[in-house]
Specification:
With 181 residues, this protein is mainly β. The protein has one domain (12-180): Lipid/polyisoprenoid-binding, YceI-like (Lipocalin), CATH 2.40.128.110. The protein contains 1 helix and 11 strands; from the N terminus they run ββββββαβββββ. The protein has one helix spanning 70-77, and strands spanning 12-16, 22-29, 33-39, 42-49, 52-60, 64-66, 89-99, 104-113, 116-132, 135-147, 166-180. An 8-stranded antiparallel barrel has the order 1-4-5-7-8-9-10-11. Strand 4 (42-49) and strand 5 (52-60) form a beta hairpin. The radius of gyration is 17 Å and the shape is elongated. The chain starts with 11 loop residues before the first strand and ends with a strand. The relative contact order is 0.23. Mean pLDDT is 92; it is low at 1-5.
């Protein structure tokens, strides 16, 4: 894997810290509000080999947290959505990483949900490695949107007045704390 980088401040391997790293999503519900959830079981690494950068990671689907009744969480874990029995993990593998000296980041890669892999492009910001009391740390914040149908999330309910209960487009925000191994 190669990275087209404007700047490359990373050397070695940086482990994604499960706490406080998160993968969050938001989807329009009933056309009037955002339904939000967070995956907290994040794992992975950023590997720097010369000028090449690679990001790979995963999250446990069962780590989903939503501010709704328990029945809704159970529905999200069932076959209509994440189908955790068959697909316990969400995974990502980068194909290109571009870091600008301004702190802007562009990451292309392959996202796998429900056993379906599709290309995605995320944009965001990065923070270079710096010493902390517990080791060298860095940050990576990314945003993308996906069409959930591309990953087999076909459940939908029509609203009584017309329209769909939940949008097909899902906004995804990734916040990673990286620590040098």
């Amino acid at each position: 894997m190669t990275a087209d980088t404007t700047t490359q401040p990373f050397t070695g391997t940086f482990q994604i810290q499960p706490t406080p790293s998160t993968i969050a999503f938001a989807v329009r519900h009933s056309g009037v509000f955002w339904f939000r959830g967070v995956f907290s079981g994040v794992d992975g690494r950023l590997i720097a080999d010369g000028d090449a950068l690679a990001l790979e990671g995963s999250a446990r689907a069962e780590s989903i947290s939503v501010q709704e009744p328990a029945e809704l969480r159970a529905h999200l874990l069932a076959a209509d959505f994440f189908d955790v029995e068959q697909h316990p993990e969400l995974t990502f593998r980068s194909t290109a990483i571009r870091l600008a000296a301004t702190g802007d980041a562009k990451v292309d890669g392959e996202l796998t949900l429900r056993g379906i892999t599709r290309p995605v492009r995320a944009r965001g910001h990065w923070t270079p490695p710096r010493p902390a009391g517990f080791g060298d740390i860095a940050g990576l914040e990314l945003h993308t949107s996906i069409d959930r149908r591309d990953f087999g999330f076909a459940w939908q309910a029509p609203l009584p007045g017309g329209g769909d209960a939940i949008s097909w487009e899902v906004e995804v925000d990734i916040d990673l704390l990286l620590m040098r191994e």
